[in-house]
């Protein structure tokens, strides 16, 4: 494999590609940077932009050169009415951004499951990134079948009693409808000292979404950092999902620098795009 120095050079090219449209045309910049020669697309998990309004979050997503977003509830409340949801979808379309999913959405009762699926249906979402209680999984499966909306269970690593790893979720859903799947968060996977590449390989038939991030250590104390600066072998991970033929979204969930995330997000996308350019 090409060495890290060449990947960093390519990342610089990717970062330039991500930022040049913004410099050239301001807020109306092209988001074509999310498209590539592979079957998957790049996007943003809007929790990365949790301290900003929906309008600001969409603008920052465009500045990162991507055109897909998964809304966390601060950008579209779960109890929103039809009119508010339609307004949010229109806001996304105006910016040229696809609202492909919602989450992370916690489901602690049947009423919350019902709410989540109506919310996703009204918004035209492809999937719900969710954390349902174990006893609700069969009920969620019924909703997945009736709404034809995928569920992607999100792992949260150390301290998560429900789904600390992708494996813990997979073992509960492997005999259910194939639309019952996983959102593998590679940062939390690494924090529990598992190999993100191996988890993707082992559970690939149910990988519906991926949250990409990097972390400072392969232990509970590890924290989010700019992609390419942590302990995850990002080039090897991306090479693996390319070889596996992943067709979903890789959404950056950048949890650091809550009040000023854009520089770290842009560098993370630049590095990611640079690596992909070398594959």
From TrEMBL:
UniProt keyword Nucleus present: no
UniProt keyword list: Signal
Record-annotated Xylose isomerase-like TIM barrel domain positions: 135-268
Pfam families: AP_endonuc_2 (PF01261)
Entry keyword annotation includes Signal: yes
Segment forming the signal sequence: 1-24
InterPro entries: IolE/XylAMocC-like (IPR050312), TAT_signal (IPR006311), TAT_signal_bac_arc (IPR019546), Xyl_isomerase-like_sf (IPR036237), Xyl_isomerase-like_TIM-brl (IPR013022)
UniProt-recorded name of the protein: Tat (Twin-arginine translocation) pathway signal sequence
Native source species: Tangfeifania diversioriginum
Taxonomy of the source species: Bacteria, Pseudomonadati, Bacteroidota, Bacteroidia, Marinilabiliales
